[in-house]
Amino acid sequence: MRERSRVEETIYAMQRAGAGSLQVISDFDMTLTRFAHNGKRVATTHNILDNRLLINEDCTKKMRELLNIYYPIEIDASRSVEEKLPLMVEWWTKVHELLIQQKIRKDLLAQAVRESSTMLRDGYKVFFDGLAEHQVPLLIFSAGVGDVLEEVIRQNHVFHPNVHIISNYMDFDHTGVLRAFKGQLIHTFNKREGALSHAAGLRELQGRPNVLLLGDSLGDLTMADGVSEPQNVLTIGFLNDQVEERKETYINSFDIVLVKDETMDVPNAIFRYITSSRDNK
Ligand code: TMP
Ligand code: MG
Question: Which UniProt keywords are given for this protein, alphabetically ordered (predicted)?
Answer without folding.
Answer: Cytoplasm, Hydrolase, Magnesium, Metal-binding, Nucleotide metabolism, Nucleotide-binding
